[in-house]
Amino acid sequence: MHRSTPRATCSFHAIVLAALVLTLPAAALAQSAAKPGTDYQPSVGQEGKDVIWVPTPQALVERMLQMANTKPDDYVVDLGSGDGRTVIAAAKKFGARALGIEYNADMVTLSQRTAEKEGVAGRAQFVRGDIFESDFSQATVLTLYLLPNLNIKLRPTILKMKPGTRVVSHAFSMQEWQPDQTESVEGRTAYLWIVPAPVEGTWRWSVSTGGPRDYELTLRQYFQHVEGLVRLDGNMGQVRDVKLNGDGIRFSIYELTGSAPVRRDFIGRISGDTMKGKVKRHDGGPDADWTATRTPSAAAPAAAAAR
pLDDT tens digit string along 198-214? Predict the structure, then answer.
């Protein structure tokens, strides 16, 4: 972690981090101090580029990676990787490829040495770099232990990542972007977000659900929360239970086909300006395929209004 400047913008958060340092046992602080003639060892609470360094407890590191459903085919990137524990855990316990981006060159060397000792140097890599100038767009899992103002500074970049990317933060939130999951381990909180696909705009498609029907769906998006209105053959219809999870979407449309409305459940995937999947009928009819196209004038960046 690295302490932010100017100090006035983060005085409260500095107090929080100082309190974390004070709660650590004296023995832990003594062991973290560098000793003459020995390899570099970081000191808890030491100055960094953006925040002071306070390590995430190992139990919480592992829980964060579990929250992200980390698997061997994932690519984990830890921003401000410190002593490398998150990257090494991702490689050793979850079999993932992992990269730590850390500004402190001594921390990078220490992390590389530890990865070699743990036998995961081939999967756990570390580079010296500024997290705000580094390209981490290929990550499928992103881990953070930064201050709120730094999270918010990174938020636009994170929202441009591939839909479905899992983002896990120790202690600090993303403000208006509400987490998809929150957990606590030994009194410490972790938050999980899943990067949502950009779905805001007007989508059109035709499908036969008991007869050919033309749909025009207009969606409004606030991060992962979506609401919408639909026109069916020019008439307004009801859209309910819109759920967006990464690039996956589902919603229900109530169609008037006789004396009572009939529910149709649309389940699909978003890829750019195309949304396609299956529609499930609740009147005994067969499922049908559907493919929607977003009108060019309505296309918008992911969560653009929220940023």
Answer: 999 999 999 876 667 89
CATH number at residue 124: 3.40.50.150
Report yes or no: 170 and 144 within 8 Å, Cβ to Cβ: yes
Asked if the peptide bond before residue 6 counts as cis, ω within 30 degrees of 0, the response is: yes
| Helical residues (DSSP H) of the chain, grouped into ranges | 11-22, 26-32, 58-67, 85-94, 105-117, 148-159
Q: Report residue 133 as tokens.
A: 């100038």
Boundary residue ending a domain (170, 194, 218): 194
Sheet containing 141-144: give its strands across: 124-128, 97-102, 75-79, 141-144, 166-170, 188-194, 181-185
Q: Are 131 and 105 in contact (CB under 8 A)?
A: no
Q: Are 52 and 172 members of one domain?
A: yes
Nearest to 279 by CA among 292, 265, 298, 293: 265
Q: Give which of 47, 40, 82 is closest to 61, Cα–Cα.
A: 82
CB within 8 A of 88, min separation 6: which ones?
98, 111, 114, 115, 118, 120, 124
Q: How far is CA 227 from the centre of its chain?
A: 21
Residues 53 and 173 occupy one common structural domain: yes
Q: How many CB atoms lie within 10 A of CB 286?
A: 9
Domain count, the chain: 2
Least confident of 136-140, 209-213, 273-277: 209-213
Distance CA 307, CA 302 (A): 9
- The model's pLDDT over 16-62, given as tens digits with 9 standing for 90+, comes to 444 444 444 444 444 444 444 358 989 888 888 888 889 999 999 99
b/e sequence 219-248, b meaning 16+ C-beta within 10 Å: bebebbebebebebeeeebebeebebebbb
The Cα 118–Cα 89 span in angstroms is 10
